[in-house]
Design a protein that fits this description.
Shape: globular
Strand order of the largest sheet: 2-3-1-4-7
Order of helices and strands: EHEHHHEHEHEEHEH
Number of helices: 8
Helix content: 40-55%
Mean pLDDT: 91
Largest sheet: 5 strands, parallel
Number of strands: 7
């Protein structure tokens, strides 16, 4: 879709919440193209980079993962805190352990970000609140049957990870990767029953998270059958709030 850029007048600190297959990644990419001041802060990327660089936090995380444990919330929060402080988006005296009032984050439009991968629970959100106040949480809603239809039409080039969809992103040659010409396949876990279970689990786990942010007055819900239907609504709301 055609894209013009806009500027924020104040910092946007965003979380996108949506079921698997709803197009959350697509919306994040479009938002960052439209609003160049907006950056992505991905807890997963921070964790992988920390492990790759063998930082003290990275070694702790790697030990946890090797022993089959989940990476503790404190560790993820420390990674996010370090990233925001390194960009001067949070004061250097912001701390996980301090009992003093949380210092105010930067209000500069250039300190705008979409936080991806964290929080996933209301407990994690409460911990995050103590570090940085999120000022917009977007709940992306697409009907279950629409999501299941997308998944049934999804084909992948396994070696590269390139994804196609016979409904809206077809390969140039049916069943073949555009770059290599190799055969496309469907993922083994892309069957309907597996996805219905994933979607039910998401509904169960996301409800308390959305209720938490609803209580904070920062939750906004947008519905649509496609990313192209949702994006204009999203842009309109962002411009009303931040531009």
């Amino acid at each position: 879709m055609a894209m013009t850029t806009k500027e924020f007048k104040r910092a946007a600190r965003i979380i996108l919440v949506g079921a698997p297959g709803v197009g959350k990644g697509t919306q994040a990419e479009r938002l960052m193209k439209r609003y160049p001041q907006l950056s992505a802060v991905s807890s997963g990327d921070l964790l992988r980079e920390s492990v790759r660089q063998k930082t003290p936090l990275g070694r702790e995380a790697e030990d946890a993962m090797k022993s089959g444990k989940l990476v503790p919330d404190d560790m993820i929060l420390r990674l996010i805190l370090a990233e925001l402080k390194s960009k001067n988006w949070l004061p250097t005296n912001t701390s996980l352990t301090s009992s003093a009032p949380t210092p105010s984050p930067s209000a500069s439009p250039s300190a705008s970000f979409i936080l991806d991968g964290f929080p996933r629970t209301a407990i994690q959100a409460t911990r995050l609140d103590a570090l940085v106040p999120i000022n917009l949480v977007v709940s992306l809603i697409t009907p279950v049957n629409t999501i299941l239809g997308r998944i049934a039409s999804r084909w992948v080039h396994a070696p590269s990870g390139r994804v196609y969809n016979t409904g809206f992103n077809k390969p140039q040659v049916d069943g073949r990767d555009d770059v290599t010409g190799e055969a496309l396949t469907q993922r083994a876990d892309d069957d309907e029953e597996t996805w219905r279970i994933r979607l039910r689990k998401f509904d169960e786990t996301s409800k308390p998270l959305l209720e938490h942010y609803g209580g904070k007055g920062v939750l906004w819900t947008v519905e649509g059958n496609s990313s192209d239907e949702i994006s204009p609504k999203l842009f309109q709301e962002f411009e009303k709030r931040f531009a």
